[in-house]
Write a structure and sequence with these properties.
The protein is α+β, with helices and mostly antiparallel strands. It contains 4 helices and 12 strands, in the order αββββαββββαββαββ. It has a domain at about 110-290: Sortase, Chain: A (Beta Barrel), CATH 2.40.260.
Length: about 290
């Protein structure tokens, strides 16, 4: 090979190596950008969750400070059964609305507040809000209305709490930090259900204890899909419609739950995202027992 030919080869190799270096540098920049972006997102995600939890702890203190030993009386309800209810001594009027005294301070802070939900031995111990005029207002906002990936637990606009609808539907995020409604996915396991059968949901209108009757995976379906949509049930027009809802929920539950509900019972449904399918959801349904 001539000197001239060897020189040409060297030039070509240098150009080729230079091209490789440029591509490598571009890839490094891309990977670093992705890494920094992902790190920033994760920091923001976990910081929002931490900030939200700190806020909730402060709200819990407001409930504790205003709580008193409730006074009750026995009445005969519409089913002809004895029922223990709170007396007027447990309520106070705020802006023309009669609410539980223990929630007075929180309600004055934010009148979108409608109740508090707790499941013992879980992370679920949170305030619940409702904004019928803009249902998802708190989807990405904390209790104070600031932007937050954790959001705030909120009630569907079609649910009525003052004179309870047959079903009150409560939404919450499935946070990777284990917070908000993440723990309800654990109800897919029968033993977890056995250890966490009861849900406490006290609204500004009264206290309530609920027993789980179903827990299942589902998904948000197209409008044209006529299959069962648990998230569209609020008030039954008759006994058959109520029974159909309960039957469908129990059929989707991966294990047998003997406790059921009958027409006239009041229900709550907790709903969160699940990643088993597109637009996946996980729901827990419970009936009021006191």
């Amino acid at each position: 090979m001539s000197v001239s030919s060897r020189g040409t080869v060297r030039v070509k190799k240098k150009k080729k190596n230079k091209k490789k270096d440029i591509i490598l540098n571009i890839l490094i920049v891309v990977f670093v950008t992705i890494f920094v972006g992902s790190g920033g997102y994760l920091f923001k995600y976990y910081y929002a969750s931490h900030k939200n939890e700190s806020q909730v702890e402060e709200l819990k203190e407001l409930v504790v400070k205003t709580s008193e030993e409730p006074t009750t009386e026995i009445i005969i309800n519409e089913k002809g059964e004895e029922e223990i209810v709170l007396t007027d001594d447990n309520f106070v009027e705020v802006n023309g609305k009669k609410i539980l005294k223990k929630f007075e301070s929180i309600y004055k802070q934010n009148n979108a507040f409608v109740g508090w939900i707790t499941i013992d031995d879980t992370e679920i111990d949170y305030p619940v809000v409702q904004t019928p005029e803009d249902e998802e207002y708190y989807l990405r906002k904390d209790f104070e209305g600031n932007k937050s990936t954790a959001g705030t637990l909120f009630v569907d606009a079609s649910s009525i709490l003052s004179v309870p609808s047959d079903n009150i539907l409560i939404y919450g995020h499935n946070m990777h930090t284990g917070k908000m409604f993440h723990d309800i996915l654990k109800y897919e396991d029968e033993q977890y259900y056995i250890n966490h059968k009861y849900i406490k949901f006290d609204t500004i209108y009264g206290e309530g204890t609920y027993e789980v009757i179903a827990a299942f995976k589902s998904n948000i379906k197209p409008i044209t899909d006529n299959s069962f949509k648990y998230y569209q049930f609020f008030d039954a027009s008759d006994e058959a419609e109520f029974d159909d809802f309960v039957t469908n929920c129990k059929a989707l539950t991966p294990y047998e739950i003997n406790t059921t509900a009958k027409y006239g019972d009041k229900l709550i449904t907790l709903s969160t995202c699940s990643y088993h399918t597109t637009n996946g959801r996980f729901a827990v349904v419970a009936k009021k027992i006191k």
